[in-house]
Amino acid sequence: MESESQKKLSIKQQFKTLKCCVLIPTYNNGKTIEKIIQSTLEYCDDVIIVNDGCTDSTSTILKRYPSLMIINHAINKGKGLGLRNGFAKAVELGYDYVISIDSDGQHFPDDFILFLNKIEQVPGSLIIGARNMTSENVPSKSTFGNKFSNFWFWAETGFSLPDTQSGFRLYPVQRLKKIWFFTTKFEFEIEVIVKAAWHGISVVSVPVKVYYAPKEERISHFIPRIDSTRISFLNAYLVTLALLFWHPVMLLRKMTFANFKKIWRNEIIASHESAEKKAISVAVGLFFGIVPIWGFQFGLAIITAIYFKLNKFIVGLTAQISFPPLIPFVLYFSVKTGELFLNQDVHISLNKLLSLESLKQTISNLYIYFIGATILSILVAIFGFIVTWLILKSLGYLQKSK
User: Fold this and answer.
1) What is the CA 114 to chain-centroid distance, rounded?
2) pTM for this predicted structure
3) DSSP E strands: which ranges in 39-161?
4) 309 conformational bin, left if phi > 0, alpha if psi -120 to 50, beta if neither
5) Pairing of strands 47-52, 69-73
6) In what order do the strands lie in the sheet with 169-171?
7) From start to end of 59-104, where are the E strands?
8) What share of the chain is helix, strand, coil (3-state, %, to 5)?
9) What is the spatial distance between Cα 310 and Cα 26, in angstroms, rounded to a whole number?
10) Are residues 277 and 185 in the same domain?
């Protein structure tokens, strides 16, 4: 049977094989940092410490460990910038992965093995250590804040995670170096997982242990009023960007030839949904894809699908009727519909739609476009409902008759 020392040596070797190191950002955690360093070194020889402008005994403690790679900030710059500078150092040194662990004693280095084993199963992923938020001494405000953060991550990416606030994570730093980040404080831990998901990096979780010290011993540098405001502004920015751009992009990524049969079978003709619900989903998608609320079409379509429990994939897919190559046609038929119902002529032709003269003509008669697009969206939605319902009913009839 393998001894404890042999297990630790095996884990050290696994770190080296995977080209992974440990990153510990710290700010005035002098009471706990040494214990974290000692226990970390039992499992990994390659450790980066970011001394984020510490004014307590941390700097003195770090001098006792010459083998550590230390990044010193002259002043406190925030956890986000500490992580980002740590990532840059890891990339410079040739590491593929970094496991970040907080210096307050909340996490347990013996859980490193969980991240290493998981990354072997899903290479290139970003892995979050999901804490058991029902554990002893977990503050109620932390539990609520975590649920709140989980909701916004889902709204921004379409993916669900059990714990989006844990600082115990494995980052694929070679893949992250291609992504632009701008936050520097606690909110970076939200920005990085959202943007990773947007760029096709799988974000997954592993269950980890957690320790919350009694309230009187707990040290936190989170300033609720200031940091919560930063996080709120970041989520507003990310949600807007998701609705305007990233949700459509992520949906279109699924539309590869390899996935088409699976999507058709599971999402389009899934037997658990009625023909009526699928037809309504098509209608809703087409309506929002044409109705003149540019920038909010996809987001409102998905919100409607969620609220009315429609097929979100069908709604999202059909809302792409306003995808760039189709926009000239949508504009043209919207204007022509407006002309027909208002008995006016804008003198616009399809082959010259994107010419400067045609654009000027359309802009000067925007009310014709808005009215026409609104009417067209309703008509196309009704047409889409009828055609979809008839096709699905016919397919159902043919399957039953076999």
Assistant:
1) 22
2) 0.70
3) 47-52, 69-73, 97-100, 126-131
4) left
5) parallel
6) 69-73, 47-52, 20-26, 97-100, 169-171, 126-131, 203-208
7) 69-73, 97-100
8) 60, 10, 30
9) 47
10) no
Q: Do 22 and 112 touch, CB atoms closer than 8 A?
A: yes
Distance CA 337, CA 344 (A): 10
Q: Which of 53, 56, 57, 55 is nearest to 71 (CA)?
A: 53
Alpha helix stretches (DSSP H) within 254-365: 257-263, 275-290, 297-307, 312-318, 327-342, 356-364
Q: Report yes or no: 243 and 319 within 8 Å, Cβ to Cβ.
A: no
Domain check: are 156 and 69 in the same one? yes
- Do 78 and 202 lie in one domain? The reply is yes
What are the tens digits of pLDDT across the range 244-263?
A: 777 667 766 666 656 656 66
Same structural domain, 107 and 139: yes
Identify the domain containing residue 289 by its residue range: 254-401
Q: Please tell me whether residues 119 and 137 are part of one structural domain.
A: yes
Give the Cα separation of 169 and 216 in Å (integer).
27
Same domain, yes or no: 178 and 48? yes
Question: pLDDT tens across 314-341, in order?
Answer: 888 888 887 767 777 888 888 889 888 8
Q: Which two tokens mark 203?
A: 């974000």
Indicate the helix (H) or strand (E) that contains 114.
helix 112-121
Which amino acid, one-letter code, is at 277? K
Beta strand 20-26 pairing with 47-52: parallel
Query: Domain containing 161 — which CATH number?
Result: 3.90.550.10
207, 223, 246 — which closes off a domain?
A: 246
Q: Which residue has the tokens 């409102």?
A: 300
Distance between CA atoms of residues 126 and 175, nearest Å: 10
- With b for 16 or more beta-carbon neighbours within 10 A and e for fewer, the 190-204 pattern comes to bbbbbbbbbeebebb
Structure tokens at 336: 């022509």
